[in-house]
Amino acid sequence: MTSSSGASRRQVLAVAAAAATAPLIAGAPARAAEATGPQTWDLTVLGTSDTHGNVYNWDYYKDAEYDDSKHNDVGVAKLATLVNQIRAERKGKPTLVLDAGDTIQGTPLATYYAKQEPITTSGETHPMANAMNILKYDAVTLGNHEFNYGLPLLATWISQLGFPALAANAVNAATGKPAYLPYVIKKVRLGGWDSPTINVGILGLTNPGVAIWDKGNVEGKLVFPGMVETAAKWVPIMRERGADLVIISAHGGDSGTSSYGPELPNENPVALIAQQVPGIDAILFGHAHAEVVEKFVTNTATGAQVLTAEPSKWGQRLTRMDFTVQKVRGTWKVVTKRATMLNTNTVVEDPAVLAAVRGQHGKTVDYVNTVVARSSEELSAAESRYKDTPILDFINHVQTEVVTAALAGTSYASLPVLSIAAPFSRTAVFPQGDVRIRDVAGLYVFDNTLEAVVLTGAEVKAYLEYSAKYFVTLPVGAAVDPATISDPAVPDYNYDVISGVDYDIDISKPVGQRITRLVLAGTETPVADTAQFVIAVNNYRRSGGGNFPGIVKTQVYNEQQEIRQLLIDWAQAKGTIDPADFYVPNWKLVREGVPVF
After folding, report:
1. CA dihedral for 498, 503, 508, 513, sign (positive or negative)
2. Which top-level group of life is the source organism from (predicted)?
3. Given CA atoms 252, 258, 259, 264 in this order, what sign does their dihedral have?
């Protein structure tokens, strides 16, 4: 964990002083003052977010150039080209570049340098540091996924950056002070050498959900106050310390809702920050992976219009915010502000960024193409959301085996082991024949570890009822379309299936009344409310991710084993992936007892 840099007045002023003495960008000569009134100047702020370990425009799971149905491209190398074009277009006028977080997790490239050759021990510079340093960011906010690999790796990555990493609401649990730099104030010259300067304050806010999602890494070390209250604390301080323009870089969406319960501050409060905290000019935000080109939110205290924007995900889009400012009676005022969005599929990749990461990219490609087993047939996840499929049973079988073996000889050995898995990917496939690491990684795309808890039969049913809210209600006789069978408000990763019991989900019934059959595996014996089961589950869910009921309990198994690696190890040990070894159809969608599919 980094020190509480920025927590004291002296430290923050030191940051501002350092920025003030940094070399200034040369630009066009200052324009002559207009006789009609104060002269205006312009400032551009470029924003990225949720790059998630994407540098090259590459799909490591398909071992091919990235492409989707909308022909989006991905990667920091593409973003760099757009940034460089805008810098050239502006001919030295001030252009700041910010990122709103979720940077070092999300691709096999990022995973490799966290797990296979971790930067904490290898001496390597993280590929996302290599790429972003070429681009010359001005600041990055820590996203929730920055905490996935533990605080030592995060600290190492931050030390490799050539720019500040911000998180005002990640607070040292022991001291109550910020664990990371809360903000920076950059002294920016608005034109040539004799032009005026403006102080741009940049406040970073991370997501309070870290306390749940990475509880194992941060509990007892960091606490995460709300983003609204943290902004309300620091924005006035930034203004007092000379910030003429205040921009927040926030890793939280603007929906005002949370994927977890009310015990933590709001997960997606950007609109609330804009409404409730005076003194903010603009908010660059992320986390929701949405494309918000330009949205103005009225501050209820001042009536000011706060500019907000979110640049999608993975480097697919670049936000551009343009500000016109003028000095009136010694104070800088924003005259106009607007935002536009640029698409990275319009440009080629920046060769300098590609070169900086080429060796690491190549090593990752070689690694993910390692063959781990042969599959007796093609196994696809395309239907796993609404049908019991062998490929999802593969996950549950491995989790069940591992937990069963670990609990042998303990007081839990006599309890049936159930397993929980979610259809993370609709495109995952194990081809018939060679199965490679990238195929397994494409099925299990998150870096979760395996844990286990004990649930009662009543808790298992409540869990399944909660999961079944994933489906829209379709009365008997209504047409069923797999493309629209799920509630768009519930992501695929928050729909869980359970192995080890047999059950029906009646999608003609209201949410909360859908588990119409829940019996012991291979029988018609109803699961008793008081029955006990060991539940194999990933750490994200067990820590409260998705707000599923009953699962946040003390673990009876937790050896910090990564589930993706357990799947790889099982496949390598067996040599063959054959559904006959693990596929047990145990659940189905019904309407009044009649199967939907």
Report:
1. negative
2. Bacteria
3. positive
